[in-house]
Amino acid sequence: MLAALRGRVDGEVDASPRRRAEYSSDASNYRVPPTAVVFPRTDSDVAETLNFAREHGLPVTARGAGTSVAGNAIGPGLVLDFSRHMNRIVHIDPDRRTARVQPGVVLSALQAAARPHGLRLGPDPSTQNRCTLGGMIGNNACGPRAVAWGRTSDTVRELRVLDGTGTERVLADDLAAVPGLPEFTRSNLAVLRTELGRFERQASGYGLEHLLPERGSALAKSFVGSEGTCGLLLDAEVELVELPRATVLTVLGYPDIATAADDVAAVMACAPIAVEGIDARLVDVVRTHRGTVPELPRGDGWLFVETTGASAAEALAVAERLCRTTHALDARIVTDTAAVAALWRIRADGAGLAGRTTDGKPAWPGWEDSAVPPEHLGAYLRDFAELTAQHGVDGLLYGHLGDGCIHVRLDLPITEAPQRFRAFVFDAAELVVRYGGSLSGEHGDGRARSELLSVMYSPDALAAFAGYKALFDPDDVLNPGVLVEPRPVDADLRVAGLPLLPGAGGFAFPHDDGDIGTAVHRCVGVGKCRADSSAAGGFMCPSYLATADEKDSTRGRARVLQEVVRGELPWSAPAVAESLDLCLSCKACRSDCPAGVDMATYKAEAMYRRYRRRPRPLDHYALGWLPRWLRPASRIPRAANAIAGIDWLRRIGLRAAGIDPRREIPRLADRPFRRTERARALLSPEPPPPTLNPLSTTSAGAPADVLLWIDTFTDAFDPDIAQAAVTLIESLGHRVRIPRRRVCCGLTWISTGQLDGARAKLRATLTELDEHVRAGGIVIGLEPSCTAVLRADLPELLADDPRAAPTAAAVRTLAEFLLDHPDWHPPRRPNSRVVVQPHCHQHSVLGFAADRRILTSTGAQVTEITGCCGLAGNFGMQKGHYDISVAVAANGLLPALREAPDDAIFLADGFSCRCQSAQLTGRPGMHLAQFLMGE
User: Fold this and answer.
1) How far apart are CA 327 and CA 330, in angstroms?
2) Comparing 341-350, 666-675, 722-731, 860-869, which segment has the lowest mean pLDDT?
């Protein structure tokens, strides 16, 4: 059947188990696997897909970035992903202040295109760096600045759609564009005037108030928020607003968030463009996650208020008036751009971290988007606190308090007691209706709230909703089960009844109750992995940025693994291998994903479960056992290098080993570090002093011993790095030791899923380091990926070994050690120009802040690359990965090096990063230790 559809469209049609898993959910609690996913390229593709669906009795669901938290972007038939191809900004008209866009245009792309004209789209939801205009129109998105610039419905001028019959219609301000709509409107005037449009954030149901003559008979606006149930968007004309000339942020402190809500009327009297509320517990979570937050005024609840003016002085005057006329305990006016960004980041980080409660439990959407008229918000919040206490659920509050919209994710018992989830949301609906509010303030109803519409609206209003949909989609082809004839709120729940998955001897998953099923369900689908966050210092997700395919996003991979833990797919399924194939194991999602997804760990665990005690791909032996092969090769480096330099022999060997023949084999050093005279001197047999304080001195007054971890890569390929590090540490008066035995962190075994082998390596490492660590010593790592293993993977692979946690806590990067040393100051390098590539594992596990501080203190002119280098250990070497590896490098490393002057120093602590640069650009790299020693 689907073969026939493929013959009718230019876009892709994919019904593979992997693709169906990837699109089985969005950012909601729901799971509905589609029959197939279609990626339309043209209007004709959309029309043909809809006609095909009608012919074969298949429903159709439109999808943009899949960031819906209400479940309105999933469906059982054909899902049309508009984001892949239909993502063109058709034109921007600066004079008319309009833009015409296809449905797959990402909001941040439109904002970037409009900015040179001094314009922007008003609504700015928190997902603006990945959400699409089609999705925004589907659920009538808002965001913080809707309080001034309106909802998406306020921006729409004209929509070109296909209705459920396949008829193309242009919707603007003429009701006659839809046959029967003028008559429908006249017959429902009472309902439209009394039940709809009562306050700005009444997003639940259809926006039929816009059909009223006193509201301009705005047909296009009434279509906004219909959640894909009435038509498929082909393109849209939207209004743009002028960028403000000057803005000021004022933070107002209150005793609690409900008291802050009580003061909204006074705040709104100053005509702000944003009024965001944050609860103290959410700030505490951000502080715990980041270590610090910017200074806030006194209080346990805050309003972040943004005001504007024609000049900086005028904006500041408005902010000062705001402080005088409101009733806050304390206030802080902020004009510095960096400080403003840091404060807004509390709100941005908090929105992501709200997916976990303060005690680490998963917190779910479902009642995350209620709204009430702002004058009732404080009282509503107090009653809502009582309601959550009665039901024994908890969550972290924030939201758009200026227009009465509250966001909260709650630790609802969806997994073990979905009936309690159902009881809570119905009670919550009754509460919000008592305050004249709306089930949804901006996210839409979807599968999460459509059944609750009967609590909020009369039978006449529900009949009007059904009648409106029938005019567009009489056969209920488009997104059935949403808004009209809704599915139950507790049907199709993704985690309901999910069993615990027995451990297999791999990772311990200590933060997920030891269960990989719980771990992979950390992904709730917010889709940050689809965004290019490099401008904000983000590294996630390099493979998606290279391919723009959901398959290669962290979310897409998590969805496939969720099907595995459900028992729908085996670990050995081709879908699993395809999904994980292009994961670079960069670990960027570990730090950048708001939910803390760690796909590198899940990939290693998946390969372990698939291949344990079974034959493996050849590259697992060639690259996974690399330290084993390097030991004999390092004894004859000149011969090994000569053989590797014979081109035809190299290509044959690499192919046989499952490695891309376009790769070069890195040259071995003439003498590995452990075989140098200096290393032998460091291998003194006597133990360290009995009492160590590595950052000051021993009891005898001498600087304490430190242990320098000599990793395989530094030893075999770059011993000069170890030489520089020893000289630097000794210059501070410390005695340097290295492990007496040749031990390994097991990195290459971990990255190829050979976890039994990795554990054996790590146990040997613990035995070697134990005496030093028990004496209070620290361990300094030079290679970021190996250092990250010792700090993060070690305690997760050897959770039962009491030596693991103290050893992990003793590990430092060189930069961390130097900054903690009281007597050390970075050398001045004011004439140096440095391009630095932070290693992905350093970004995600260790942090780059210490290195950044040191480089800044040297006075060098520093350019910091954001994003993965693309080699990523064994990934870029493996057969089939070369082109993606280069594409990833093209997003950060390559342009940075092309733009750098010839005399610029390329600084990269990671061996992979230095190799990628050398092989793709011919530019060698330098380690921080070498830079500081002036080498």
Assistant:
1) 9
2) 341-350
Confirm if 442 and 128 have CB atoms less than 8 A apart: no
Q: What pLDDT score does 685 carry?
A: 59
Report the Cα 555 to chain-centroid distance in Å: 9
Q: Which amino acid is at 474?
A: P
Q: Where are the beta strands (DSSP E) in 827-924?
A: 833-836, 861-864, 905-907
Distance (Å, whole) CA 240 – CA 783: 49
pLDDT tens, 738-757?
999 999 999 999 999 999 99
pLDDT of res. 703: 65
Closest listed residue to residue 785, CA positions, set 695, 864, 714: 714
Count CB atoms within 10 A of the CB of residue 907. Answer: 26
- CA-CA distance, 133 to 131, in Å (whole number)? 7
Q: Is 753:608 a contact under the CB 8 Å cutoff?
A: yes
Residue 248 pairs in a beta bridge with 307
Residue identified by tokens 């089930």 is 439
Query: What is the token pair recorded at 710?
Result: 């000599």
pLDDT in tens, 755-784: 999 999 999 999 999 999 999 999 999 999
Rounded Cα–Cα distance for residues 24 and 77 (Å): 11
β-bridge partners, 247: 308
- Beta strands across the sheet bearing 231-239: 89-93, 98-101, 231-239, 156-163, 168-171
DSSP string, 78-110: EEEE-TTT---EEEEETTTTEEEE-TT-BHHHH
Give Cβ neighbours of residue 825 (< 8 Å, ≥ 6 apart): 857
| Distances from the Cα of 279 to the Cα of 347, 378, 596, 758, 840, angstroms | 10, 13, 22, 43, 33
Give tens-digit pLDDT for 441-459.
999 999 999 999 999 999 9
